[in-house]
Amino acid sequence: MPNGKLPNNLKITEDIIVKERIRIPKKEALYKTGDPFSSLYAIRSGSFKTLIEYSNGQSQITGFFYRDEVLGLDALNNKAHASYAIAMEDSEVCLLAVKDIEHMLEEFTEIREVMVGLVGTEISRSHNMILTLGSLNADQKLAMFLQDTAQKQETMGYSPNEFILRMRREDIGNYLGLTLETVSRLFSKFSKEGILTINNRNVHILNREKLLAIQKS
């Protein structure tokens, strides 16, 4: 195949790599720490949280992932997963088998470029999260989280201003390094200031400009 390019009539995810789809019920693990690296997982529907567990039994949430995002990149270096991926709702993923990925990386430059981009994005995301969360106050952390969630909703073709939080407030606090009480207090504060309304997990952002201003303050 000239230049290792994919024919225009082939779709990378559907026709080339994807061999199987699996459904993961809410609260079930897609993979666990120590599981051997056998596949990457493209989220077809639903959402996941990733977390690491420490020897003292505590855990740290490292990210929230939605449709069209890829899970499992943590296993690329050591050939074993370094974290858990837990479904936050009934979800479905497409399996991108390692042996097929390795073949495609050698055969097609387009897929190789996609994979390099995915790995680079994941490394950048993790690095930025550590640096950013360590330097922000509580208001800025929640504002950043809501902005990020809104952007992901928009990327998926949904409204960036009205969405359902798939995670618990405890999970938001764990991810941001805040207590549950602080997260609840900030939601109430943002509501009183006319930035958003929230009913259970239903969020309606009324003023994204003000939310962005808080994040950058």
Automatic annotation (TrEMBL):
Q: Which GO terms describe its molecular function?
A: DNA binding; DNA-binding transcription factor activity
The record ties this protein, via Gene3D superfamilies, to: Jelly Rolls, Winged helix-like DNA-binding domain superfamily/Winged helix DNA-binding domain
User: What is the superkingdom listed in this entry's lineage?
Assistant: Bacteria
Q: What is this protein called?
A: Cyclic nucleotide-binding protein
Q: Where is the Cyclic nucleotide-binding domain?
A: 15-76
InterPro entries documented for this protein: cNMP-bd_dom, cNMP-bd_dom_sf, Env_Response_Regulators, HTH_CRP, RmlC-like_jellyroll, WH-like_DNA-bd_sf, WH_DNA-bd_sf
Q: Which UniProt keywords apply?
A: DNA-binding, Transcription, Transcription regulation
HTH crp-type domain ranges (all copies): 136-209
Q: Which organism is it from?
A: Taylorella asinigenitalis (strain MCE3)
Source lineage: Bacteria, Pseudomonadati, Pseudomonadota, Betaproteobacteria, Burkholderiales
